[in-house]
Structures are given as structure tokens and as C-alpha cells.
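My main concern about presentation is that the manuscript never shows what a single data entry looks like. An entry of this sort, consisting of the sequence and the corresponding C-alpha cells, reads as follows:
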Amino acid sequence: MNGSLVALQRRRLLVVGLAILLVLNVGNAASIYALCILEKDFAFGIVPLFNFDTEGNFPTLFNGVLLAFGSFLGFSISRSLSSGGGSSLVSSWKAVGIVLGFMCLDELCHIHEAIGWILMTRVETDGALSWPWVIPYALLTLGVVAFFARFFFRLERKYQVYLAVAGGLYVFGAIGLEMFEAKHVEGVLAAGESDKHGKDSLGFCILYTIEENLEMIAVMIANSGFMAYAMEHCNGLNMKVRVEP
């Protein structure tokens, strides 16, 4: 019996993703209004559910889904290239899946926050490095860039553009703006303000809103590039799923 085919349209997925991101931004804006203007940290659940600086909520879930989908595409492209007669990029695409899978786990399980707390008890940092998890992650990022350099330059130029734009936006958001946020909070506290006015100030809220938007947009760009590559090199990743006892 022929099974039904589920078609994933690249442009439609991108439009749906941007629509969801817009809804999340509306919720985040409402949470910022509640925090900064109304000075409410719950506001009928809007703050814990939609605030971009809060973990374990709808924005976190959406970001995790985007990263998980990217990981799935990486592994699927690797498998398709391997079954199609082999390719020198099979291992590289598998590594893409592994990296994005780790990023998904980090997003959902807050690994970098845990590393940050451990480092804060052992090293003294200030200014842009007040949240010291950025140090090992910056080094890890450099290692990942070096590892994928050969893979990057073996791709067609259009896919290089996808990865360069996506990677640049993600790193600037996840590490660069995080350092700006740390410096901003430290500056507010140094001026004699409370921690509440540091992390719930409008300036800090704007910074983390930009950061999270850049991260999610970057992953959507990367996923769109992966799907374009799959259509050109993997016959659209036509796959069948069968459930067995």
C-alpha cells in the first residue's frame, strides 16, 4: 500500500516560522511592559510564558524546535549523500547534525547557564565577561569554525552565503550581545541601582530581545539553506517512515 507523502515546502516553513516569531515578539513586548511599566513579574502568566529572558517557555521551545529541525536536516542530508553513492561531505553534514543537536540540548537544558554558575564560583570576571560562560563558548565557537572551514569552502557560493549570514547573526546574538548585556547590567548596578533595575531595565530588555530574535532568525536562515541544498543534491530528501512491532 502506498503511503501518503508529507511535503515540507521551504518558503512556507519560513513564512510560518516568521509568523510564530512575530507572535512570540508580541508576547515578549507585553511581558516587558508588565516588568518595566507595571512592575509585575507574572502578569497572568505572560512574563514566565513569553519573556525572552526566561527559560522553559514558548520562545525557548520554539528555538529548540528550530535547532532540532536543523539537526534532523544535517543527519538526513548526510544519510542521503551516503546512500546515493557516497560523498566527501557525508561526515561534515553528520557533524552539522551533531553540533545543532548539542545546541538544541543546550537551549532546552540550559547547559551554558550551568557552566556559567560553576565558573562564577571559581574565577573572577567583570565587565563584558561578568557572565563567564561566554569564555569557553567563544573558544568552542572558534574550534567549530576551524573544524568546518574546509567543509564551508567546498560548498557552492550560495550555500556559503546562507551559512556565513546565519553563523554571523547567531554568534553576534548569542555571545556578542550577551557580553553587552552583562556590561549593561554591571553598569546599572555600579550606579547604585538594585538588581531588579539592572535586569528588568528597559535597556536590558531591548538587548535580550534583539539577541533572541537574531538567534532564531539565524537558525531559520540556516534551515532554509539546508533545505535548498537537500532539494539540489539529495532529491528533496524523499524518505519513508514505517512503524514496526
In short: The chain has nine helices and no strands. The two ends are 18 Å apart (CA to CA).
